[in-house]
Specification:
With about 210 residues, the protein is mostly loops. It is about 0% helix and about 5% strand. Strands 1-2-3 form a three-stranded parallel β-sheet, with no helix packed on it. Strands 4-5 form a two-stranded parallel sheet. About 40% of the residues are buried.
Length: about 210
């Protein structure tokens, strides 16, 4: 809808902008390179299944209003915020995701992100967490103790180049089905300790880097 509108700086919507029947918001604002703020908290997203790359490459975006999103039918959020280089925080506390299947590269290259709360995410159907926090250089801690990874097979590049990360809680990760952990913690130069005592690597094929 607003893909690659280079001069767009900010956008808000009237309350009567009716999105009740919308199922797909993929790439809705993607490549809006000068977009600084967008407030879509009033959107009715109860039927939305796909938000793939919704804000991808919004490199100047600093404010996203999505605090009231209903995500009960959401299936795909691959690369939803990828390359939002100036975004410091996102309120995802309303995200409850019982049908979620895809979230690769979710915060890929979010270099300015300092904190993130995804404690209400339901991840039981997720099979791949490839590059979800890749190059989140400013992120200091991540609590993923609520993540159900019982069906995950790929953890590649998950925390790669999280240079400021000092604390990660992945103590409850179920890695029985994981085959690839390549580059999982590569470049985490501030990390002083990590508890992976629960990791089952019986099916792992790649632990490189």
């Amino acid at each position: 809808m607003f893909y690659y509108i280079e001069r767009l700086i900010s956008i808000s919507f009237r309350e009567d902008f009716n999105t009740k029947n919308i199922t797909d918001m993929a790439q809705m604002f993607a490549m809006s390179l000068n977009l600084v703020s967008v407030n879509i908290s009033s959107f009715n997203t109860e039927n939305v299944k796909n938000m793939d790359m919704m804000f991808n490459d919004c490199k100047k975006l600093t404010l996203i209003g999505i605090s009231n999103f209903n995500t009960l039918n959401l299936v795909n959020i691959d690369s939803m915020f990828s390359n939002c280089e100036l975004l410091r925080s996102i309120d995802l506390s309303s995200f409850k995701t019982p049908k979620l299947e895809n979230m690769n590269h979710l915060f890929f290259e979010c270099k300015s992100l300092t904190s993130i709360d995804i404690s209400n995410f339901i991840t039981k159907n997720i099979k791949n967490l490839f590059g979800i926090f890749y190059n989140c250089q400013s992120l200091r801690s991540i609590n993923l103790s609520n993540f159900d990874t019982s069906n995950v097979s790929d953890l590649r590049y998950m925390f790669r180049d999280c240079k400021s990360l000092t604390s990660i809680d992945i103590s409850n990760f179920n890695t029985k089905k994981v085959r690839n952990m390549s580059n999982m913690f590569y470049g985490c130069e501030s990390l002083t300790s990590i508890d992976i005592s629960s990791f089952d690597t019986s099916n792992a094929q790649d632990l490189s880097w």
